[in-house]
Automatic annotation (TrEMBL), chain A:
InterPro entries: Mitoribosomal_protein_bL32, Ribosomal_bL32, Ribosomal_zn-bd. Pfam families: Ribosomal_L32p. GO terms for molecular function: structural constituent of ribosome. The keyword Mitochondrion applies. This is Large ribosomal subunit protein bL32m. The keyword Amino-acid biosynthesis does not apply. GO terms for cellular component: mitochondrial large ribosomal subunit. It is found in: Mitochondrion. Its main location: mitochondrion. One of its GO terms (biological process) is translation. Component of the mitochondrial large ribosomal subunit (mt-LSU). The mitochondrial ribosome (mitoribosome) is a large ribonucleoprotein complex responsible for the synthesis of proteins inside mitochondria. Keywords: Mitochondrion, Ribonucleoprotein, Ribosomal protein, Transit peptide.
UniProtKB/TrEMBL annotation, chain B:
GO terms for biological process: translation. It comes from the Eukaryota. PANTHER family: LARGE RIBOSOMAL SUBUNIT PROTEIN BL17M, RIBOSOMAL PROTEIN L17. GO terms for molecular function: structural constituent of ribosome. It holds the Pfam family Ribosomal_L17. Keywords: Ribonucleoprotein, Ribosomal protein. Belongs to the bacterial ribosomal protein bL17 family. SUPFAM superfamilies: Prokaryotic ribosomal protein L17. It comes from Caenorhabditis brenneri (Nematode worm). One of its GO terms (cellular component) is mitochondrial large ribosomal subunit. The keyword Ribonucleoprotein applies. This is Large ribosomal subunit protein bL17m.
Automatic annotation (TrEMBL), chain C:
It comes from Caenorhabditis brenneri. This is Uncharacterized protein. GO terms for molecular function: nucleotide binding.
Amino acid sequence: MNEARERILINLRQSVDPILRIFGHRSLPPPSLGFALDVSGSQPVQKSPITYGSVREMIDDFSIVFGVPKYRTSKPKKVTRKFSFTRLLQPLDNLVTCPTCSNIHPSDTICDSCYAKVHKLTSEIKKKMMQYNPYVGEKQDKEVYVKFKGEPKAPAEVVNGKRVLEMEDERPTWFKKLTLKK
Amino acid sequence: MSAHRVAASLPRIGVTIGHVPQKLKTGGIEPSRRARLEVLRRIVTRTVREERVELKWNRAVEARPYVERLIQLGVERGPLDEYTAEMMEWWLLEKDLITKMHEVIVPRFQNNASPFTSLFRLPPQRLQQFIQNKREVWKRYDIGVLEIHGNPFPPVQEESSEQSDSILDILLADALRNHQMDLQERLNSEKSK
Amino acid sequence: MKVPVRGLLALRKASTAVATAETIPPAVLSSEFFDHVRHQVYGDSRKVDKVVVTVKTEAKDKPVLVNRNVSTSFHCFNHINKQFADDSVLVEVIPSVGGAYFSSVNQPIQDQSEVRKIGFDTSENLNLVNEAYWRSCSLVTAAFLKEALDVDVDFGFPRGSIQDGYFSVAVKGLNGNVFTPDELSTINRFGKSYIRDDKAFEVISVPKTIAEESGINGDHLIRIGHQVFTTDGPVIRSTRQIGRFSILRSKLTGKSGKDVLVGGVSIPAKQPTSSYSWSLIAKNANQKFSKSN
């Protein structure tokens, strides 16, 4: 593990060294144009090329030229970016149409308009189901048989074995009466 | 009877059991492992009482295997078993529901296998929560419908009846019948050769 | 002045002679003729009369205000929603005065009535739907054959049913030339692009008097695209409802042996199949067609 880490550091240093050297070189003095008044008193300074000992030093020296914000982003601009539609909203691509009522819903859910219908009738039946008085000994110890208005009375075996709930409204067309298949 | 021994002797629950226990919270109890059980207990009681409930999706998913296990205990071990009685006693907060469980729900599944419940998912609903100083607060929820099979309510999902009179069915049935006859003839003719 | 008896008799003879001699020739079925008959049957579309039609749906009945003799059941269904209207294949019309009858969706409504949509998934009227579909397929075949063939052809529609496994159209005027496989494939390609164009089946219910006058033998006048035909029953709403469609074969038929009977098979778009099932169905239809007389 440590060897690997050392190897990585060595490789990094080797790849960075040429870059340090390049940036370290000072540019050559301008070529003399051969004028009489050419002040060539100052000898072309041949300083040794500057090499940085580490990346840190290079950054310290040159950090001033790196990309940097020029102006502070105003609050409106920040807020625009934070609450833009691309960030807040995602298009849904898993929508399907209910074959019964043509309402649109995600593919992994059931149609909520169809369920709303079912929920309404279920709540009515539940209300009737819960109307029993435990203080007088009525118990929920029998299966429930739902009878709608206008339907014939339940046969005797049902009445004895099940608890009959009388609903005031007529049976909706979509709640089909299940008949036992023989 | 040790709970582990009993659990091992029962058949598998035919429903996915999540491996990340949800941190269920409810008013009046500090969230903890015990609080989660309390929430689940209330959900199970409500499910047995009403036989079809709508609740938050993650809670429904959490509670479903518990309902299944309770019913399974009743089916496999009967009402007189010590462990079953203890479980029913703890899980069902209303004691008349124990009667309901043993006399109404368990007999439905004497010859059926798990799963005894169904869970349906509704599209995300936007429901009103409360009114705070005349400001209505609405929140979005993922709702699931958990129901025990055999309930007297209209079915959530209508099974589309198989129509054998539609054009495709008539044509296909005819085609298959003739195809079969052809194959049979070919077989017979080859046999006779 | 008294007309001499012989003159009278002659007159009477003349009038009866006119009645018998004037056997009206069958009308040339063209698009203009269709518009003419529509004008005759349904009156001037400039004089628009409103009528209330109740659309019966699963949930509740919705009353809709439409134009008498101009709006069709399709327009009524569009008031519910587009998918409801697109799904409709036939419609049961229960007028406030008179008996209920089944009609095509693109047939104008004449009186205040209740309408009930019948689709491919309505279980009660499946036989009717199947019949109408088979009829429509024959008509569509005739329509695109007429467009495709540059010979002047006429069509006959032999009675067929779904149980046959194929539908057929008799083409008169081809002089006994059966289609070659190359021609069949071109026809099939043309037919499929014709069908994909979503052409509506415009229908006029022609009463007996006008039918006799104009020489139409049939209850209904139907227009698909630019082609006009007569039939005796309701048809589906639009060619878009046709899914898999294929003309399989043609053979000689008829007393003279000059009529070409073209057979094909099709399935509604709402009842998708795998290509294997379709190949079985097509093969079966082909065999049955060849075996039939």
